[in-house]
Amino acid sequence: MITLFSIFILSVQILFWLLTYQLKKDFSQLKSIIPKKLVPFSVIISARNEARNLIEYLPSILEQDYPTYEIIIIDDNSTDDTCEILNHFKSQYAHLHIIKIEHKKSDGKKEGLQQGIMNAKYEWLVFTDADCYPKSDQWLRKMASKCDEKTEIILGYSPYRKENGLLNDFIRYETFMTAVIYGTFTQIGMPYMGVGRNMAYKKSKFLTTVNKEKFEKTASGDDDLAVNAMATSHNTVLQFEEKARVISLSKTTFSDFIKQKTRHLSPSTQYKAKHQWLLGLLAMSQATFYPVIIFLCFLNFNLAVFIFFVRMMTMVPLQISLMNKMEAKDLRNKVILLDLLFFLYYWYISFKWLKTKNSAWN
């Protein structure tokens, strides 16, 4: 049985990494043509006690090279200088609009974001966070290059900024892997989530498709639950080009990172059944690979070595190739170490989530 199970686990892993070849291949076709007629955008940002980040990063969004767009910032019950900072920017930029929330009915960002959506002037909505900044002033132009008659959702990429230390390496690797997974699923016609630090969708699609009661059930999931409800194989595209990326600031402590990730796990229980099943199968194959190899060593050492090397020979070249294209070149010489840490992370985060099962502000 252990031999059959090990072969099954290997098959799942090999199949997934072979499917990522489609994502790797499509990077050569990511160069987009900016249309002559650019759709207007409503950029929506929820901010809570983000005064310092707004000072540093908001100008890069306010000064995008784009003809028609508005920025809606939800001041979500901030107790620092966020309000004063926003009013200062408002006096200089007419396309900045502020929604102030003081009395909330629920935790998290969703209540504020929904107010932002309802008050948006334009059909196309673009989302990011206050602690993020576009990699270039062409961010919105690159997002607009994906807007056509059939597209209703655009999933971008938001890597974390490189800092010193193994924790930052792992956070960037985990983010890279998340993007590889949702990017691959999108490219094979099964989009299931996006990251709210860099994504766009049509306002009308959100209002007519997303179940308000289900959407508000958890404090987190403002990004992936909306995409999971709206996305189809025909209406969702990726925009992973370098100039379309939004850089984020990573957590600086392990405990803060784990708290963030346990909150992010909660919405996944509300994904469509087929997505839960496939993602669960992929996670199971990742979480059991090393224990199965160790156990198999005592039964059939040669088979254990064969399965280990087949997976590595399939996975490592594809990971390195994608890292070269996804802001993670410096992680190439740490692939096997990070893969092992990823296995440990799967188990730890699962137990942590089962223990806490709560949600809070990101």
Question: Can you lay out the helices and strands and say which pair or pack?
Answer:
Layout lengths: L1 H25 L14 E7 L3 H12 L6 E8 L5 H9 L5 E6 L8 H10 L4 E6 L2 E3 L4 H6 L8 E4 L9 H22 L11 E4 H7 L2 H4 L8 H7 L5 E4 L6 E3 L5 H12 L7 H25 L3 H25 L9 H22 L6
Parallel strand pairs: 1-2, 1-4, 2-3, 6-8
Antiparallel strand pairs: 4-7, 5-9, 6-7
Helix pairs in contact: 1-6, 1-11, 1-12, 2-3, 10-13, 11-12, 11-13
CA gyration radius, whole angstroms: 21 Å
Secondary-structure element series: HEHEHEHEEHEHEHHHEEHHHH
Strand order of the largest sheet: 3-2-1-4-7-6-8
Q: Describe the biggest sheet?
A: 7 strands, mixed
Give me the CATH architecture of the largest domain, please. Answer: Alpha-Beta Complex
Strand content: 5-15%
What is the total number of structural domains?
2
* Mean of pLDDT: 90
The CATH superfamily of the largest domain is Spore Coat Polysaccharide Biosynthesis Protein SpsA, Chain A
The shape, in one word, is: globular
Structural class: alpha/beta
CATH topology of the largest domain: Spore Coat Polysaccharide Biosynthesis Protein SpsA, Chain A
Give the C-level CATH assignment of the largest domain. Alpha Beta
Unreliable sequence segments: 358-362
User: Percent helix among the residues?
Assistant: 40-55%
Strand count: 9
N- to C-terminal distance: 43 Å
Number of helices: 13
